[in-house]
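Hi C.,

You asked whether I'd gotten around to modeling the 254-residue construct. I have! Everything is below, sequence then structure, no commentary in between.
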Amino acid sequence: MNLSRRLFPALLASLCCTISWAGSHSNGGTVLVIGATGETGKLVVARLVDEGYTVKAFVRDAVKGRKTLGKKVSLVTGDVTIPATIEPAFNGIDYVISAVGATAASGNNRPEKVDYEGVKHLADAAAAAGVKHFVLVSSMGVTHEDHQLNRFFGKVLIWKAQGEQALRDSGVPYTIVRPGGLINEPGGNLRVVAIQGDPLMDNARIPRADVAQVCIEALKSPAAQNKTLEVFTEEGESVSDWNGFFAALEPDGT
């Protein structure tokens, strides 16, 4: 498939950030955010803190995690590719947001190990812990096996699709958010649009800050559960009714 020259780097960047975080819902529950020292994850964490969540970060490097995230979050160390390090992090966890992603096309952090096996480990741990809602950041294009990112970056979209399915199969209530090309611009200035069916859209982009907001709003909304959606932005007013935003979407399997 052909991608625009501007979209390709943005979409690739969205796949190459691996971080781990955690937070607690404002109703007293606890949210574990995975993939949080990355560009999108940091925004998720900051927004959770601003909204009154108690954030706990699942990180591979505690020193880097503390430097990146500051003192308003607690840290737990682990690696999504090693199940034994994941399970303890889920003690007392009610909610999860994961923005984890492979950082290399090959090696221990390749897409197969992170985007599929790592997400499956997280989904299994969430099921065992009785997590109430798991929000996973994936990517547009995961259903298109001939996508050039698969040739360029270790079949990343194929493995992301398998990671998505592992979450669906886990039995944990979930929302799967598939952003278009991620851009580092302020959020809230454009309308966030949700569609379904994973169409090929070369120019679909979305600020990382808006992705972070979609994830957190999904966590709050029962209407978002068990749904997969593609998101991008266009000119227009920002969303004011997030429950209605999610309620307009079809649940998976319908």
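If it helps when you're writing up: The chain is about 35% helix and 20% strand.

Thanks,
B.
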